[in-house]
Design brief:
Helices cover 39% and strands 19% of the residues. By secondary structure, it is of the alpha/beta class.
């Protein structure tokens, strides 16, 4: 029986407890999950791809069935390259669904062998987004409820907030 491999793509700028919620629940379904950070030149990221990968590795150091990677270009091409057949996407609100449904439809048209699995974010995290976390942190607000301690520390360093 072949392994069930899923790709969990995103910017993860930075990774939040909402992202981790989706990941850990996905690990109950899939044998291996590849967190794939999209190198999106259109988005102005706070952290470099390398910094994001390092933070995620620190958080998931004990997870042997999770691989952290990055990719350029089309997700469907990356899916083929890593021999995965599933994409995991987290949903928070109806607006997420509309966009994600459109992307899943395009991806499925480009690669008929892949399926997108939508997972609803747990109620404790449906309001958490990387954008909101960065905004709160930029004003010196506490983000410890939203991100792991190493990420909180890095946010404080980026925004030069006193501990």
């Amino acid at each position: 029986m072949s392994k069930r491999i899923a790709v969990y793509p995103g910017s993860f700028d930075p990774i939040t407890y909402g992202h981790l919620d989706i990941l850990y629940r996905g690990l109950r379904i899939f044998d291996k999950i590849i967190i794939a950070i999209a190198r999106n030149i259109e988005k102005k990221a706070l952290f470099t791809v390398e910094e994001r990968m390092e933070m995620i590795r620190e958080v998931l150091e004990d997870q042997k069935n999770v691989l952290i990677d990055s990719f350029d270009g089309l997700l469907v091409d990356y899916i083929k390259k890593v021999k995965a057949n599933f994409v995991i996407r987290g949903l928070r609100a109806m607006s997420d669904f509309e966009y994600e449904f459109q992307m899943a439809s395009v991806n499925r048209t480009l690669n008929q062998t892949m399926d997108t699995i939508f997972m609803m974010t747990s109620k404790d995290f449906f309001f958490v987004s990387s954008r909101t976390v960065k905004e709160v942190a930029s004003f010196g607000g506490s983000v410890k409820e939203f991100v792991p301690p190493n990420v909180e520390k890095r946010l404080k360093e980026k925004f030069k907030v006193q501990p």
